[in-house]
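Internal tracking record. Fields below are filled automatically when a chain is submitted to the structure queue. Please do not edit lines marked as system-generated. If the sequence contains nonstandard residues, flag them in the REMARKS field before resubmitting.
Queue: standard
Priority: normal
Entity type: single polypeptide chain
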Amino acid sequence: MAIQSRQLDLRRLTSTHDPDFDQLFEIYTQANAPGERKSPERLAAMIEEPEYHFLAGMALGELAGFSILRCLHGSEAALLEYLAVAQDLRSEGIGSTLLAKTANLDAFASKFLLAEVNSDKKPGAEQAERTRRKAFYRRLGWREVQGFDYIMPPVASDLPAEMDMLVYKRELPPSIERARLRHWLERTYIEVYHQSASDPRIEAMMSALPEPVPLI
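SYSTEM-GENERATED OUTPUT FOLLOWS
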């Protein structure tokens, strides 16, 4: 049965014992390539951390999709790590509603939101699909960090695909300061990927960027 996107309500899951967690994990596994999936053990640890928000999109009593975000310490930003909709409910507007409602929650309404999105810069068999995914975010006001080659640290044995970084804020400026972007990267590397703030990949990402960095 079709679900109208306006029927979607968000609720926060705080434990793997929540009755909707297993369904969330099933959608998570279906929606993400092996190189982009964290282990079940890591997800179980994340949901217990107060900085993480596991948000279930509920429609007609069923979990239709979810978002997972990490609020970054000492920062006015949060990383949208995952967003997915159940396979049999896609193309019904649920993803757009889920993303918009997530961004408007009190916990995130005044923050910059960051998203790692598959890059469409290089030609290939999946370029059109990756461009389509970016367009999904752009329609909701997200913008790309111009000239920025994002390096996502591996989260599994398979290497992740090449990524671009998108940014959202209710009143998004046309550009951001290099120092602000660097701070976001450092906190993301430390808190999400357990890497060092002095990781050479951060300097490699920042070295060629202008001041300020345009959002396009």
